[in-house]
Task: inverse folding
């Protein structure tokens, strides 16, 4: 439908009103001659509104006189009519094109440079001067500026009192965000390094704090592959790359879950005893007597005795002995699979770290064998797979001899 409309618009068409008593005869004879009409609508008796191509109007004129039908042109649409109107207003079109060209030219230059950040030791004028020395100043063509990663590292070289700088180009305005070094804090290393992958996976998030992102989102990477490069795109500058790269990583866990287990549960009964501990040796001071339960679980809490900042080598220990009972539990296959998912998650938590996040977890296959459920669990985890790796920069290419 859209393609047909575009074709009609390219050829040009008109909206016309026909008035006469022999309009059906006119439409039939015109159709026999290959004249195309569409959106034909009877407005009232002996009055029709329709659309037709621009080039068919001349062929219709002979039929209009033979059927004594009058025609009124309401609208002229399409590229040919737009071109004709533009030609009649060629000075206006030329002015509009000149305005657009001037507007494009003006937006190709930098007209404002702004510095943001909590500045205390470094003056804003010094940062603007350093920015001007590396090419950032009003009037410079945006297309001739190097990549922002290169400009940021050049700014750090020009103003060593800064620990971080970020440069954003927004239209004709450049914003320089800066963070000053904190006195007494070890400055970041300048030894060239990359951030490489420790595991294979698909990159989902990449934040290059320093250096250049060497991969894109949704890219499959392998262990050892460079994720954030310390070598900038100018081929000369090497930095201590830092950043975070999170990827979707897949794990398969094989577990065995017994279907019949014995579980301990608190009955709600408990007794308390209190002790003083001298250098780790407890001496009971309250709650004498034997614990009247066959099976117990002890929960103790130690509190140090101190006056001001002085801590005595004595502690007060409160111990609670809870009665527990054992009960046999038989798991269904569905319950055992849920337990397998929980155990797989606990096992992987130590491998993926606190920042790791489970995105998908499901049972691939499960089999009951000898009273146990043998389960294979698939887990997809979003985790940081980047680690630093130093490198030796390649020597600059030798200059050609004259």
Result:
């Amino acid at each position: 439908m859209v393609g047909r409309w575009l074709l009609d618009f390219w050829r040009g068409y008109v909206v016309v009103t026909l008035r006469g008593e022999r309009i059906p005869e006119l439409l039939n004879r015109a159709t026999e001659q290959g004249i195309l009409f569409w959106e034909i609508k009877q407005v009232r008796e002996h009055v029709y509104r329709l659309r037709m191509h621009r080039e068919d109007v001349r062929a219709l004129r002979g039929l209009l006189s033979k059927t004594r039908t009058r025609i009124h042109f309401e609208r002229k649409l399409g590229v040919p009519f737009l071109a004709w109107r533009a030609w009649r207003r060629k000075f206006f079109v030329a002015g509009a094109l000149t305005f657009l060209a001037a507007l494009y030219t003006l937006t190709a230059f930098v007209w404002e440079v702004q510095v943001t950040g909590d500045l205390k030791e470094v003056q804003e004028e010094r940062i603007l001067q350093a920015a001007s020395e590396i090419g950032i100043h009003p009037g410079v063509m945006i297309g001739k500026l190097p990549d922002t990663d290169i400009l940021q590292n050049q700014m750090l070289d020009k103003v060593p009192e800064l620990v971080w700088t970020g440069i954003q180009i927004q239209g004709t305005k450049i914003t320089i965000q800066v963070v000053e070094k904190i006195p007494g804090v070890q400055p970041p290393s300048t030894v060239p390094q990359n951030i490489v992958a420790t595991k294979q996976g698909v990159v989902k998030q990449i934040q290059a704090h320093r250096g250049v992102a060497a991969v894109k989102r949704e890219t499959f990477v392998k262990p050892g592959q460079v994720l954030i490069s310390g070598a900038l795109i100018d081929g000369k500058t090497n930095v201590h790359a830092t950043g975070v790269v999170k990827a979707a990583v897949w794990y398969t866990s094989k577990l065995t879950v017994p279907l019949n287990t014995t579980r301990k549960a608190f009955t709600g009964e408990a007794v308390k005893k209190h002790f003083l501990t001298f250098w780790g040796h407890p001496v009971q001071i309250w709650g004498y007597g034997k614990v009247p339960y066959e099976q117990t679980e002890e929960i103790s809490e130690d509190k140090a005795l101190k006056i001001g900042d002085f801590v005595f080598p004595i502690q007060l220990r409160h111990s609670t002995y809870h009665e527990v009972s054992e009960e046999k539990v038989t798991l269904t296959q569905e319950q055992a699979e849920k337990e397998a998912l929980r155990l797989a998650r606990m096992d992987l938590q130590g491998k993926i770290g606190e920042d790791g996040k489970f995105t998908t977890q499901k049972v691939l296959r499960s089999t009951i064998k000898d009273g146990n459920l043998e389960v294979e669990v698939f887990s997809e985890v979003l985790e940081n797979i980047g680690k630093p790796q130093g490198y030796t920069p390649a020597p600059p290419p030798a200059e050609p001899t004259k």
